[in-house]
Design goal:
- One of its GO terms (molecular function) is fucose binding.
- Keywords: Isomerase.
- This is L-fucose mutarotase.
- Its EC number is 5.1.3.29.
- It catalyses: alpha-L-fucose = beta-L-fucose.
- This protein is mainly alpha-helical.
- The protein has two domains: 51 residues, no CATH class; 47 residues, no CATH class.
- It contains five helices and two strands, in the order H-H-H-E-H-H-E.
- Helix 3 runs parallel beside helix 5.
- The longest helix has 11 residues.
């Protein structure tokens, strides 16, 4: 078995392949959207902040975009005043990766 130095073990071969592919590849919640479309890449048991930190070790931030995006809350969560503390973790990880941009909230359609 070949092990590459410096690659976080939580990044699966499938995810590394996608990251090495076309930078315009869209990543979206495949299993909830479509059953016959793009291949679903799972990372069971791994949190998004851990994945983001691992990916940022290998993948430079896009300098042509002003900010990262997070998906907006559903209306019922907004009405409840739901806070999303993980968004602050995302901002911290982006700063650690050398970015001075924050995130914007992508409106649900």
């Amino acid at each position: 078995m070949v092990i590459l130095k410096g690659i976080p073990s939580i990044l699966t071969p499938e995810l590394l392949y996608v990251l090495a592919s076309d930078h315009n590849t869209q990543i979206f919640p495949t299993s909830s959207i479509c059953k016959c479309g793009p291949v679903e890449i799972r990372a069971d048991g791994v949190g998004i902040p851990e994945l983001l930190k691992a990916i940022l070790r290998l993948f430079p931030l896009d300098t042509y975009d002003d900010s990262a995006a997070v998906m907006d809350l559903v209306q019922s969560d907004k009405l409840k005043g739901l806070k999303v503390p993980v968004w602050d973790q995302y901002s911290d990880l982006l700063k650690q990766a050398g970015s001075d941009v924050s995130y914007y909230i992508h409106k649900r359609s």
